[in-house]
Amino acid sequence: MTEPMLSVRNLRKTYGGTGRGEGLVAVDDVSFDLAPGESLAIVGESGSGKTTTARMVAGLEVATGGAVLLDGRPVAGPGKRRSRDIQMVFQDPLGSLDPRQRVGAAIAEVLAVGGRRSRAERRVRVAELLDEVGLDQRHAMEYPRNLSGGQRQRVAIARALALEPRILILDEAVSALDVSVQAQVINLLVELRRRLGVSYLFVSHDLAVVRQVSDRCLVMHRGAVVEEGGTGEVLDRPRERYTQQLLDAVPRPGWTPRKRSAALT
Fold this sequence. Notes:
The protein is an alpha/beta fold. It has helices spanning 50-58, 93-96, 103-113, 119-132, 149-161, 179-196, 207-213, 231-236, 241-248, 260-263; strands at residues 6-15, 24-34, 39-43, 65-70, 73-74, 86-89, 167-171, 199-204, 216-221, 224-230. It contains ten helices and ten strands. The radius of gyration is 19 Å and the shape is globular.
């Protein structure tokens, strides 16, 4: 078996703790590994803790307990800088891009922070990154508001790839897109992973998308991991009742929606 590149061990996050109690437990003792070039999905309903887990891995949230290790070394926590090897793509690309900044400048800014000194080098690399995500050089002069939702998400992916990360965290990165545009971005992600060898941590509630992009699947409920395994195994032969309830809630021919209180408990 390939040695894990990323190891998450006993990760925990609580909010609002006092001397009389620990407060709200958002993530409770979560552990998993991610191998080079692998795609791991974290699935669950809203409030399951999947996004909080992803943000702790990215260094955007400080864990209450546990560790995030890259090649065996801690990469996130109090007093530690975010690792350039782990980058994140968010659900809302418009919210993650500065509306006053042209697309090319937004990508070049990341390259400048990452240490590319020559303006000419940055300009060439911006064109390469836009090409990698299926955009052309003219898009560099556009403002985010003038792009479609799919184009903006491609720009967000290009920015995340600018520092040549080894791990890309995708937090509901296609859920806000129209179905046809979603399919195009999914195909792009599959191709980028094949071509660049980048690993994905794919956070989603959409099991159909997870099936297309992930090798393994981790199911979270109320902050804890309740099931994990190969994506086909988990989605086709779930062992846990909660996973089956998630699958039962997916629309399909002849499907009758259940009340939430009965479906996800």
